[in-house]
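Filed under: proteins

Residues; backbone shape codes:
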Amino acid sequence: MSAAIKSLDVRSASRLFKALGDETRLRIVALLSHGELCVCHFESALALTQSNTSRQLAVLKNAGIVEARRDASWVYYRLAPQLDEVCKAQLKALVATFARRDVLREDVERLLRSRGPNACR
């Protein structure tokens, strides 16, 4: 095996693409491109159950795409900073294309209608 092949590390990119290989997870990332959100925001914007939302967010978290913080009984998610430059560029390019997709614009519109000061309480 050549030194160039040995030095090529694609594990981060592979993990990123595997996690994003699902429509629901892509839609979650599109919503998170607008800022930090609570699980309940995804439920209402995407018409998902709490268990499905949590399962999808766990996949994204395990892949290093999102990070979570707890506030009392609520968990809030945001896009995680990408340390790998290839992953950072790919995620940035993906997020930039979301605004041109009708279904993703509709998700954002539903999110904006449901998101209020006490939406999570």
Summary: The chain has one domain: 11-111.
